[in-house]
Design goal:
9 strands; alpha/beta; Rossmann fold; globular; single chain; 11 helices; binds D-glutamic acid; 259 residues
Length: 259
């Protein structure tokens, strides 16, 4: 098969990568997309680097076997820990990562704190610190690790008291301050956007999926590997839990209105 007709693979520790894949469905409707979620081992964001690397490599191996022409590490945590090693090993396939959208949040140029929600691992990695040095040095940036939010989304909790109370407890120290933007630095979090919006009001809520998909598109264009077929692409969902429940949740998330 010609490279351009091969699928694009997405991996995540669980169902979060679907928020990135949704952006790809919009921007690249003719592409065939495969998502592998490792819900059996989620959350990654509180594991050791060794564990995260091992799990990420095995998810990528799954997508390589599916003949993917490009692979999106649709997980901030796995990107921050494993992207360099992955690129070393898989030299033939472009590997695209995602990182917290600090740059667009700073470029809004609005007064107030920027709150970065992410997993504990993402927030303490060098890659993230480098991002802050490059773009955020003159702004007040608050780190808000929210590991439990991943577990709520993995259970399909996108609204209701449990989610609202959790988010309130996290945002409480900042509710009297001006917040200019909230960066969703974990691909699970966009599924809780409505609930986050209720708490932070007018603050802009930004995630990295738009930038990641833009980069994916540019890379495929440069390699002359964009799918030029006239028909709509296919979507395949795989999950390490392999249960009907998780596949139902994935389908629900793919069609959920999150704005
Ligand atoms: N969705 C992931 C991310 O973007 C990780 C969630 C987790 O497994 O902790 O960071």
């Amino acid at each position: 098969m010609q490279e351009k007709y091969k699928p694009i693979g997405f991996m995540d520790s669980g169902v979060g990568g679907l928020s990135v894949m949704k952006e790809a469905i919009k921007a690249l409707p003719q592409e065939n997309l495969i998502h592998f979620g490792d819900s059996k081992n989620a959350p990654y964001g509180i594991k050791t680097d060794e564990e995260i690397k091992k799990l990420t490599f095995s998810a990528v191996e799954f997508l390589i076997k599916k003949q993917c022409k490009a692979i999106v590490i649709a997980c901030n945590t796995a990107t921050s820990v494993a992207i360099n090693d992955l690129r070393e090993i898989y030299k033939e396939v472009p590997i695209i990562g995602i990182e917290p959208a600090v740059k667009p949040a700073v470029e809004l140029n609005e007064d107030g704190k920027i709150i970065v929600m992410a997993t504990p691992v993402t927030l303490k990695k060098e890659k993230f610190n480098h991002l802050l040095e490059m773009y955020g040095s003159d702004r007040e940036i608050i780190f808000l690790p929210c590991p439990e939010l991943v577990e709520l989304i993995e259970r399909g909790v996108l609204e209701g008291e449990e989610l609202d109370n959790y988010l309130l407890s996290k945002f409480k120290p900042y509710l009297n301050d001006k917040i200019s933007a909230v960066v969703l630095g974990c691909t699970h979090y966009p599924f809780a956007k409505k609930a986050i919006k209720k708490i932070v009001g007018d603050a802009k809520i930004i995630d990295g999926s738009y930038g990641t998909v833009k980069q994916l598109k540019n890379i495929l264009m440069r390699r002359d590997e964009l799918n030029d077929s006239n028909s709509k692409g296919t979507i395949e969902i795989f999950n390490s839990l392999n249960s009907n429940d998780i596949l139902e949740l994935c389908n629900m998330l793919l069609s959920a209105e999150v704005e």
